[in-house]
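Please check these two lines:
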Amino acid sequence: FTMWQIKDMYRGNPITGYVVLEFTFIFQVPASFSTLKKKRCLENVSILPTRCDCTNLQKFYEDCLKGIVIGDDRYVAKISSEKLYGEKEKILINVFTLEEYRKKNENHHR
């Protein structure tokens, strides 16, 4: 199902060569949280999700991207992920060629 969703959103050819993956996993705030705790979660102040392990999540999505967005996960040069709370659950995935990533960060530090 996840691979089908990725195929539906990505129309290009798989990226060949080295890539950088950035994942943001957004979890819905539990209904059992108080109004104050919910507000703190959404402001990303001090409460982050403890559900699921970032490394397991990123490996699952890395495998789902293989052959669709990236040619092969052997060419993942850098990977990062974070878990946050949000109003609605979603996953944000940024994929860069290594050159794009280096150029973006080079310009960012000037």
